[in-house]
């Protein structure tokens, strides 16, 4: 999965917006105004941060060398994924989905209804 595929995967989710709120090299994806993925456009290999359930975050870090505590984020709730080819795209998509679902589930009922009529 390259940057453009990752970007398109995120954007196909309901209510997702992309922006550059921090700098021109960090692409941020939000749902309901809340961040669920930060993507570095300058890293090689591709690196991105995703939100994660704290227990699952620890399990993933122990199981996969490409999963690290979230860079510049809460280490308890965020993982940095280094997409170096050591895991297949199915896992990458699962981790993105998990992040999106966590953030979406925390939104108010009113915002959820606005995003998904």
TrEMBL record:
Spell out the Pfam families in the cross-references. YjbR
Q: Which InterPro entries match?
A: YjbR (IPR007351), YjbR-like_sf (IPR038056), YjbR/MT2646/Rv2570-like (IPR058532)
Q: Which Gene3D superfamilies does this UniProt record tie to the protein?
A: 3.90.1150.30
This protein's name: MmcQ-like protein
């Amino acid at each position: 999965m390259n940057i453009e595929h990752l970007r398109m995967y995120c954007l196909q989710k309901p209510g997702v917006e992309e922006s550059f709120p921090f700098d021109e090299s960090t692409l941020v994806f939000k749902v309901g105004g809340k961040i669920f993925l930060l993507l570095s456009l300058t890293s090689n290999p591709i690196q991105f941060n995703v939100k994660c359930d704290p227990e699952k975050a620890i399990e993933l870090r122990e199981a996969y060398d490409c999963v690290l505590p979230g860079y510049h984020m809460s280490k308890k709730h965020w993982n940095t994924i280094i997409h170096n080819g050591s895991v297949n795209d199915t896992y990458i998509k699962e981790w993105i989905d998990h992040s999106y679902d966590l953030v979406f589930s925390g939104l108010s009922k009113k915002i959820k209804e606005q995003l998904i009529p």
